[in-house]
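HUMAN: Now follow token order:
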Amino acid sequence: MTLLLAQWLVTIFAVISLVHVYWALGGEWAAVAAVPQVPQEGSTKLRPAFKPRGWITLVVAGALLLIAVLVCWRVGWCLPPLHHWSLQWAISAIAILLFARAIGDSELVGFFKEVKGSKFARLDTWVYSPLCVVLGAGLLAVAWV
């Protein structure tokens, strides 16, 4: 069961990583739904909260791929299994970060965000934050089972 869960986790993290590589290389598909939006001053129009740079997006893609590799390493899928306590705690720390992401920063992301009404905010509430909870729980299961 743990191997099946690990395969799903690795697949999800790898796909999300590839989407970030696509964006880093200039891809536009779904980019508007990937960045939080804030109201413009003196207007009801929304603007992106920040402009992600290509190299930072590549760093995020690399971090997501690293998480997939750590999961592979933990369960021995495509790599020799490693049952060291440090890997267990590293995966657990990543899970806690995902739970924190789901809770949010109280303004732009997470279940308790203040800025609502944009495409990103709706997707964050119904897709991104729940996905972070599921991925975090999956990582904890892989780390401790």
Summary: The two ends are 10 Å apart (CA to CA).
